[in-house]
Structure to design on (513 residues):
């Protein structure tokens, strides 16, 4: 029992009036006051922060370890290769498949092009990702954390490099405890240099998402790239090196909020990596050839603990630190094969199935339940809204800004004139010619200023560009006097190539009666 636990127990005993050897004064010259002093003083002497105990995960072999290798290979390939994929969008446009083009204020994702005013698509994708995570977590726990989370992937990669230079678990422990020698220095140097190279590659790949990858790569090697590129490569390299190589499991335990949130996603039917206590206990060492009667299948070998990258004992039950990587399952199955007992002492299991086995019922998998149905329905609804918005996405947008100062101008012939700034967004990958007209106010005449009126009521907008033009709308004085100060009016823009039209409401202002 720890000092804190002892102190709390003594305080509880004192509060409830329970007597013990110390409480009665036996062996304690100060009696009750001495006991209380000891408990409080023990709590004061407890350090606020506990030193980290380094975790040395053992390499295991099995189904889940192979699955983690596969997920690591796929995710790292996607991350490093994606900026180099090409996508033909036509002349004058970037051909990088995935590009965050900040100078042009565009986000290119294969066939999809997102403008600043369409950022709701990104919001929708984030909502879909969150709902998908909720659904997967309610069904199978923190499988995202155990397999596909970037922190998990890069930590796993760094651990593999560490094993290459320093050996398996026992060898790494001995190396860290041994005095510094030339051999130890060489191993540590090789490991950290490899980590730095991986970190630089990670930071380098990230900046390629924000500029043309081949061009930026050439500029980086010749030191002609912008200073901001080197800054962010260094920043992301430092972050990767620190989190993946040095902090490791501390990120999941102390920095990531998801372990605290996941409790709201679980229920008694969620599949979680679990130790089957009803089968494993009473645990203890076992010699080959001896009977298994009167004991459990767990031989207390500790291999599940040695394999855990978080350094926890799955036999203690569900814990905040567990990322559900299932490596303890592979470690335990190896031992069960050696002692000739059935696999699955540690396996994906549900709390309800444990209760069913205790009651003599048959375990079963229950994925369809209110929680998962609700997540699925919301996920489907958001996906449907996103799909409808994408299918009906317009390639032509129009905005009209009426002059505020002055509101109107009275011309020499008595007519009233308003000024407007018309902006047309051409999302097509080819040049377009647009016709502009007005309707809603009888007798209104649309003109362009003399200096910009070469095309009259026509506006030519380049591919994937924003076109801006200034227009005047004039109305004879006798008609303007009937408006009583204001009238509703529409600007109509027509794509002369395909006939597509867009209307935008505005107002025409004149003198009030």
């Amino acid at each position: 029992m720890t000092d804190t636990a002892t102190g709390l127990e003594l305080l509880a005993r004192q509060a409830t009036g329970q007597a013990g050897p110390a409480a009665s004064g036996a062996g304690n010259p100060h009696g009750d006051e001495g006991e209380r002093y000891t408990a409080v003083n023990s709590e004061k002497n407890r350090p606020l922060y506990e030193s980290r105990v380094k975790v040395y995960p053992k390499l295991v072999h099995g189904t889940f370890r192979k699955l983690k290798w596969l997920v690591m290979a796929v995710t790292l390939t996607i991350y490093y290769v994606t900026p180099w994929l090409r996508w033909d969008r036509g002349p004058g446009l970037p051909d990088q498949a995935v590009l965050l083009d900040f100078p042009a204020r565009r986000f290119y994702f294969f066939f999809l092009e997102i403008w600043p005013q369409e950022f709701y698509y990104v919001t929708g994708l984030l909502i879909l990702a969150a709902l998908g995570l909720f659904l997967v977590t309610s069904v199978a726990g923190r499988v995202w954390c155990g397999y596909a989370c970037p922190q998990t992937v890069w930590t796993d990669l760094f651990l593999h490099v560490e094993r290459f230079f320093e050996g398996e678990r026992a060898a790494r422990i001995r190396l860290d405890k041994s005095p510094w020698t030339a051999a130890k220095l060489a191993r540590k140097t090789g490991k950290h240099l490899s980590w730095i190279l991986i970190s630089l590659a990670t930071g380098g790949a990230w900046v390629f998402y924000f500029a043309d990858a081949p061009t930026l790569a050439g500029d980086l090697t010749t030191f002609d790239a912008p200073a901001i590129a080197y800054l962010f490569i260094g920043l992301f390299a430092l972050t990767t090196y620190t989190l993946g190589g040095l902090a490791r499991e501390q990120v999941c335990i102390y920095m990531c909020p998801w372990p605290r949130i996941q409790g709201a996603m679980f229920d008694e039917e969620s599949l979680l990596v679990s130790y089957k206590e009803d089968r494993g206990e009473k645990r203890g060492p076992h010699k080959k050839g001896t009977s298994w009667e009167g004991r459990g299948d767990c031989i207390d070998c500790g291999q599940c603990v040695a394999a855990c990258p978080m350094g926890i004992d799955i036999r203690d039950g569900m814990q905040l630190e567990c990322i559900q990587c299932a490596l303890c399952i592979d470690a335990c199955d190896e031992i069960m094969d050696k002692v000739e007992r059935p696999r699955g002492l540690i396996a994906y299991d549900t709390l309800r199935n444990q209760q069913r086995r205790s009651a003599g019922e048959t375990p079963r998998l229950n994925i369809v339940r209110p929680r998962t149905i609700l997540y699925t329905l919301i996920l489907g609804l958001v996906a449907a809204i996103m799909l409808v918005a994408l299918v009906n996405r317009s390639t032509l947008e129009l905005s009209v800004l009426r002059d505020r100062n002055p509101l109107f101008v009275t011309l020499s012939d008595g007519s009233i004139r308003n000024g407007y700034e018309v902006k047309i967004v051409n999302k097509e990958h080819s040049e377009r010619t647009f016709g502009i007209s007005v309707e809603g106010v009888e007798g209104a005449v649309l003109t362009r200023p003399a200096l910009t009126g070469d095309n009259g009521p026509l506006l030519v907008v380049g591919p994937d560009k924003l076109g801006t033009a200034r227009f005047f709308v004039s109305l004879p004085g006798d008609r303007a006097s009937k408006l009583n100060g204001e009238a509703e009016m529409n600007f109509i823009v027509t794509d002369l190539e395909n006939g597509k039209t867009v209307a935008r409401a505005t107002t025409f202002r004149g003198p009030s009666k």
Summary: Residues 262 and 481 are 67 Å apart (CA to CA). Confidence is low (pLDDT under 50) at residues 1-32. Residues 52-66+149-266 form one domain.
